[in-house]
Fold:
Amino acid sequence: MGQNRRNYRRNTYEENRRAYLGRNRDEYVYGNAVRKISPQEEWEQTPAKKVNPGVRKNREKARHMSAGYVMFLAVALCAAAFILVNYIQLQSELTTLTKTVADKESELNILKLSNDEDYNRIISSINLEDIKRVAIGELGMGYAKEGQIVEYENEEGDYMRRVTESNK
Structure:
């Protein structure tokens, strides 16, 4: 019984294959030019598939757009254009602000250098001996005596501020 099934399947396969190829496998073709089926004959041989009416209706719906869908697409396009224009404007503004910040930083660096140069020039022009002479001779200042020096200990290590009654 198993042998019969195999033979039946083999015979069915061979028949289907012969029908697909359109000729008998037992034939032998002489020469180097084998006959080919023209494309027109192939087109005519393939049967037209019947399309389900539901599928045809869906295809026709997909081809046509309703007014509401067109309006939705127009609104979406306008919204996208608005967002893109705002994004480009913000990018431009960001670039401008970045350049402004860079200019201000370079100006700040120039002012710091100028300030440091002026400070060093002033410090180098000060003569401490003249200041001491004017303070002692003209203003009557003197060195601190033993009872005038008060020492404090700062626990926080920050800075200290002493307020006396004469400072209030």
The mean pLDDT is 79. Residues 67-125 form the longest helix (59 residues). The helical segments are 2-21, 39-45, 53-63, 67-125, 128-138.
